[in-house]
Write a structure and sequence with these properties.
- The protein has 150 residues and is α/β, with parallel strands linked by helices.
- It has a single domain, classed as D-tyrosyl-tRNA(Tyr) deacylase (D-tyrosyl-trna(Tyr) Deacylase, Chain: A), CATH 3.50.80.
- The chain is 21% helix and 39% strand.
- It is built from 2 helices and 7 strands; from the N terminus they run ββαβββαββ.
- A 5-stranded mixed β-sheet has the order 6-5-2-1-7.
Length: 150
């Protein structure tokens, strides 16, 4: 699994002109899933994200987690994170999991985050044409890969 984590002051997901998820102060997570991902990746990645100290404390030092600030999260499936650009100029998405594998893992990831965060997590709609509006705070954008554990 790959996750692009963006610290935001606000974010929303729009499908067919309707806002389906919206948050203030928190994280927008773009999640890419491969065929090899499993519950171990979900548990490791969700724990890592929940405990990332990327929010400012009173001294403007990134020292607080999403839990510390009582922030919110939106997770959006993003198969293009698995793109390979090694050959040619047209990205290959062969590493991206097909929906029959990706959807259950995406849903498990959301459930795990909700369990660890202690509240509902906003989502996109898997496979939909989504418009994402964000106000990236910092900007702070971090890429985490569960395969590399970094």
């Amino acid at each position: 699994m790959k996750a692009v984590i963006q610290r935001v002051t606000k974010a929303s997901v729009i499908v067919d002109g309707k806002i389906i998820s919206s948050i203030k102060n928190g994280l927008l997570i773009l999640l890419g899933i491969t065929n090899d991902d499993n519950i171990t990746d979900i548990e490791w990645l969700s724990k890592k994200i929940i405990n990332l100290r990327i929010f400012n404390d009173n001294n403007a030092i990134m020292n607080k987690s999403i839990i510390d600030i009582d922030g919110n999260i939106i997770v959006v499936s993003q198969f293009t994170l698995m793109a390979s650009t090694k050959k040619g100029n047209r990205p290959s998405y062969i590493k991206a999991a097909k929906p029959d594998i990706a959807i259950p893992l995406y849903e498990q990831f959301i459930s795990q985050l909700e369990k660890e965060l202690g509240k509902k997590v906003g989502t996109g709609i898997f496979g939909a044409d989504m418009k994402i509006e964000i106000l990236n705070d910092g900007p702070v954008t971090i890429l985490i890969d569960s395969l590399k554990r970094e």
